[in-house]
Amino acid sequence: MRKKIIAGNWKMNKTPKEAVELINMLKTQVDSNIVDVIFCVPAIDIIPAVEALKGTKIAVGAQNVYFEESGAYTGETSPAMLKECGVEYVIIGHSERRQYFAETNETVNKKVKKVIEHGMTPIMCCGETLEQRELGVTIEFVRTQIKGGLAGVDGEDVKRMVIAYEPIWAIGTGKTATNDQAQEVCGAIRTVVSEIFGKEVANEVRIQYGGSVNGKNAAELFAKPDIDGGLVGGASLKAEFGEIVNY
Ligand code: PGA
Q1: In this predicted model, what pLDDT tens digit does every residue of 92-119 receive, in sequence order?
Q2: Which atom belonging to ligand 1 lies closest to the Cα atom of 211?
Q3: CATH number at residue 102
Q4: What is the pLDDT at residue 197?
Q5: Domain assignment of residue 225, given as a range
Q6: Is 118 a residue of the active site?
Q7: What is the largest CA-CA distance in the chain?
Q8: Ligand 1 probe mutation, 166, 173, 176, 238, most atoms within 8 A of CB
Q9: Any alpha helices (H) in 62-104, and if so which ranges?
Q10: How many domains, the chain?
């Protein structure tokens, strides 16, 4: 049985002071005994978030990382920096980073490998645009993202990874994929993982759905056989996140 994993993606919201306030509110509402819970906070909030979550089972995640160890990369954060601050998970290749910051399957792949090398868990994102869905190329497109992102990664490491399927048209739009649409693509992701790494790896890797997950639709989505939890944006900044986690 795969343990469910629910991650909040705060995106570029909350100053360090606001982050601590939100954590203090949410940590009393979130039951992290049955599911894994992660708050993926802005880089500047990581240190206060780790401090505020001491004594709980809630983990802290980052939203990005660079794939070099150190050096002349102005503005970037290295994997060792994140690790030392207490980061356990790193979102990689979110569609907003692909769209606004030129993230590609190649850079996603380099980051996935670096994060694993530093003992953290990648949450690797994939997902199609509305145009691709309407053209009927969703599965093909997502398969390419998975193959590119996981190229050369060891199967044993893939087992411990998280993959987040987030249709771009469902992110922040209030338009959730239907349970069947989400299941279809999450199932196809497990199939491609199985083709590359074998059944055992495919059975263990956790696959999240993301895109307008809320307190009302979470339970039905997470009941689908290939959906092991969610990556939650907007609703992770409110008390509603507690409802999602305690679905
Ligand atoms: P949303 O964002 O829940 O606000 O749609 C999801 C995400 O981008 O991870």
Answers
A1: 999 999 999 999 999 999 999 999 999 9
A2: 5
A3: 3.20.20.70
A4: 98
A5: 5-245
A6: no
A7: 49
A8: 166
A9: 79-85, 95-100
A10: 1
Rounded Cα distance between 31 and 42, Å, is 23
Amino acid in the structure at residue 128? E
| C-beta of residue 6 within 8 angstroms of C-beta of residue 230 | yes
Phi-psi region of 78 (alpha: psi -120 to 50; beta: other; left: phi over 0): beta
Residue of 88, 94, 117, 134 with catalytic role: 94
Within 10 A of 137 (CB to CB), how many other CB atoms are there? 14
Residue with the smallest CA separation from ligand 1 atom 1 is 233
Paired tokens of 112: 């996935």
Ligand 1 centroid to Cα of residue 73, in Å, is: 28
Is 95:64 a contact under the CB 8 Å cutoff?
Answer: no
> Could you give the C-alpha distances from 183 to 13, 18, 48, 69, 80, in angstroms and in order?
29, 35, 36, 37, 35
Nearest CA to ligand 1 atom 9: 233
170 CA: nearest ligand 1 atom: 5
Encoded amino acid at 185, one letter:
V
Whole-model pTM? Answer: 0.98
Spacing, Cα 198 to ligand 1 middle (Å): 30
Per cent of the chain over pLDDT 70 is: 100
**Cβ < 6 A, ligand 1 pocket:** 9, 166, 171-172, 210-213, 231-235
